[in-house]
Amino acid sequence: LGKNSVQTAVEEWVQSYKEDRELALLDLISFFVQCCGCEGMVTAELYQSNEGKNVVHKMTEKFDQETGLYYKKFLAYPWILTIMWPEKLQSDFYPIVGPGPFWKRFRVNFCEFTELLVHQTHSSVLCDGHLMDTVIGMLSGLTNSAVYSLRHTSSLAAMKLLTALASVNQGICTGRRTAQRLYEIESITKLKGRHKYYMELLDQRRHQFQNKPVAIDNIICALFKRTFVPRYRDISSDIRVICMGELGCWVRLYPDLFLDNNYLKYIGWMLYDKDASVRMKCILALKALYEKRESAMKLGLFFYKFKKRILSMTQDRQPEITSECMQLLRLISEHYVGVFSAMEYVFLFQFVYAAYRPMATAAGELICKRLLAPPPHEGFFAQEPPDEFDRNLQNMKALIDFYLQGEFHRHVPYLVDGLWEAAPALVRNW
After folding, report:
1. Residue 360: which pLDDT band, with cuts at 50, 70 and 90?
2. Do both 224 and 369 map to the same domain?
3. Taking burial as the number of CB atoms within 10 A of a residue's CB, which of 30, 95, 153, 266 is the most buried?
4. CB 267 within 8 A of CB 285
5. Nearest-CA neighbor of 105 among 3, 8, 244, 245?
6. Are both 114 and 219 inside the same structural domain?
7. Residue 72: DSSP 8-state
8. Are residues 371 and 325 in the same domain?
9. Which residues, in sequence order, are bridge partners of residue 84?
10. What is the dihedral of CA 401, 406, 408, 410, to 10 degrees?
11. Residue 266 belongs to a domain with what CATH number?
């Protein structure tokens, strides 16, 4: 399927949902189950409210040796769903991990379908109290499965769904603030006629945005608690990578909600993960946040809580992580005054001698920012800034002092190589 085909499929499903809600939801559930590689049968029975707590005991997942089928029963309100599939589903192949360009494209289309489902319904049926309740119940049941293909595929769908919800709600919040600002500006003017009509339009627009962000926030929180929280520590590193990668997207897309220690703590905790790809996702997520001053200023408490761990990751077993971590620390040093002690800077500067060139270059950039930068000129009567020769002379003296005070007196080529990209005017024209 191409992008237009996925768009058409979503539009057709939304139309069918408006015509027959129950039938469309069952089709959607069957679609997600089949995308998990399950060729079995999905049956649904209406949930009876008088069952009360007994319904919990019906939520099972077991293997029937006589029939050779797996059974999974779980609640996706208003139904109790039962999925049956043959034992062969336990194999390593299922659609989103299939080899070759066809299955890679399938994964892209699957993610795109999930995201478009939100974008196509947010202005109509997304918050009808039925669609997302059923979808959340279905994904929650599948992500808790012991069968890896079900758990992996549904976790990917849930995380992509959260990404789309975060993107949509941030857009709504931005529109609400814009409408409120325009309304306040127009209310200051005392014009008549057309102005009154325009004020009524702005007021209607304000009220359109009034309750929707809260409703979508409730959906986000419910989906987050029922899918992300159980899965971010999954035994599979692939699922943990998906969770951390998408969490980084949510914080960037929807900082109004996610740029908060209640969500950032998961990134901090997973910096200790045993899998290098998970740790890398966490570092990259933090780098993206510290590249923007607005978000960096809200991360002070987070950094001081995980500062020791981030510093230690400059000695990670994976060299790619060490260089990304050094770049992160450079960004942090640019935003916070006095964030590192003199001893911590000495510790970081020594990595300019690293044999891994990206790490040495990243350390060289930190040296240029913190050690070789010209001193600031304060006051109204500050002297003229030094010319390029004087500035290079000052920096060369500082660099020689750094070299002599270090313990790597036989590693001059490493020092020059580390500064080659960061300070070309200094080391290439000495």
Report:
1. very high
2. no
3. 153
4. yes
5. 3
6. yes
7. E
8. no
9. 41, 71
10. 30
11. 1.25.10
